[in-house]
Amino acid sequence: MDLKIKDVKDIIAFVDEHFHFDFSGFTYVSFKIKLEQYFQKFQISNLNNLFSRLESSVLAEQEFLTFVMNNEVELFRDPAFWRIIKEEVLKKNNLDIGYRVCIPSCYQGAELISFLIIRDVLGLTQQVNVIYTAQLDLLNLVNKGFEYDERKHNLNLSNFKRIDGLDLPEKYLERKNNRIFATSQLFENTTFQKFDETNELLLRKCHLIIYRNRLLNYNKQYQVKVMNNLIGSLKPAGYIALGVKEIMVDDNNREQFQVINKKESIYKKRI
Amino acid sequence: MSYKALIIGGSAGSFQVIVQLLSHLPENYPLPILLSLHRLKHVRNGFVEALSIKSKIKIIEPHDKEIIKAGVAYLAPANYHMLVDLDRRISLSIGPQVNHSRPSIDLSFQTAAESYRDKLVGVILSGANKDGAYGLKKVGDYGGFTIVQDPKEAQISTMPTSALNLFNPNKIFTVNQISDFINQLK
Question: For A113-155, what is each residue's pLDDT tens digit?
Fold first, then answer.
């Protein structure tokens, strides 16, 4: 189904009214594409069918929100980024107990699991406390794992190998019922928190925020709003990582950071 | 007829064709060019440089929300979909692969078609899967001008043939004809 601008607006209004979830700051074109893919996957032919479906159960609501919002695709995406996080941020800073890392908008958890593995490889599980967040509790899908797909899994393994030439130890991931799960030991010193970065600050500031390819979801006005909240949630001299094709669109936001690695979009908050 | 943008999609066998097409365009080419080409997802460097060797036009991999400008060629970055928003900015996405591809040619064409409507010229070149066929059809549906590389000439004909199986484009052209055509656009 080809959705028109009015259709997209009607869907945004419906979701806001029924689920109190605001998509109005989302990038129009990518949101529309996601909606059309949802219509196609579930063979929905018109808006009324969609609305009836969404009203039918919490499961349908969850399925819709996670389909539209979840973009996480692979572990260790951009291996060079993970190499820099490992070598330049985690290893060089002589981390004490209580170093806090936040991974917002973390749904299936590809970024989270990637980070937890790096943390364990470096032996920093006790020192580094990880908080992963989602705007709604029902968007926390980390314990549901990933569907196993040999091609995608091989990509995960080869991404890890590209970080520094080592194979991914088997102990970190297990395959059950055709799904891949991170083993429970990885989640030590790791907590989930409901957090909406479009509207609030984190209660406790972090030393590192990993927010890669999340700004893509938002239009420019919302990107500034989100960045302001993330900056306010970051300790002085803390780091923030964006996606390699994301930039801070606001001059005031940019001025608050020094560039650690431009290519991998890693920045350090000025003191 | 005047146009506002040119979009080109290609996959296996299209690289030399793109180099040739770009090399014949003047530095002050009056349209923006959107290049949605299949590429290795983990190789982020070198593609722009390789395409730029013979091109007088500036070629970039855009950042998200970059404004589309005339005389610049925008190459879809590795492992991102490159979409065109209604305000004619680039919008990047890491959504699921489409036709086993990210960037997906279909998504680039489809969104550019909606944004530029009858002011868009779409070209599908050599490639080994059907990605791009549906997108080019959408260009035609919105009133844009559609060109398919002659499958007889294409190094790998699957992509042009898929487009021809789906709809009748405005033109089936050889590479030289495509080059002549896009050179006279204004």
Answer: 999 999 999 999 999 999 999 998 888 888 888 888 888 899 9
- The Cα–Cα gap between B5 and B31 comes to 5
Whether A74 is in a domain gets the answer: no
Which entry of B81, B108, B131, B162 is annotated as an active-site residue?
A: B131
Question: For A160, which residue in chain B has the nearest alpha carbon?
Answer: B42
pLDDT, tens digit (0-9, with 9 covering 90-100), for B105-124: 999 999 999 999 999 999 99
Q: Are B132 and B9 in contact (CB under 8 A)?
A: yes
DSSP codes, chain B: ---SEEEEEE-TT-HHHHHHHHHTS-TT-SS-EEEEE---TT--SSHHHHHHTT-SSEEE-PPTTPBP-TTEEEEPPTTSEEEE-TTSBEEEE-PPPBTTBSS-HHHHHHHHHHHHGGGEEEEE---SSSTTHHHHHHHHHTT-EEEEE-TTTSSS-HHHHHHHHH---SEEE-HHHHHHHHHT--
- Which residues of chain A lie closer than 8 angstroms to B95, CB-CB? 30, 33-34, 37, 71
Instruction: Give the domain extent around A130.
Output: 79-144+185-269
Same domain for A206 and A239, yes or no, is yes
Q: Say if residue A17 is in the same domain as residue A140.
A: no
Asked if A158 lies within 8 A of B65 by C-beta distance, the reply is no
For chain A, the residues whose C-beta falls within 8 A of a C-beta of chain B are: 5, 27-30, 33-34, 37, 71, 73, 77-79, 155, 158-159, 162, 213, 215-216, 219-220, 223, 243-247, 249
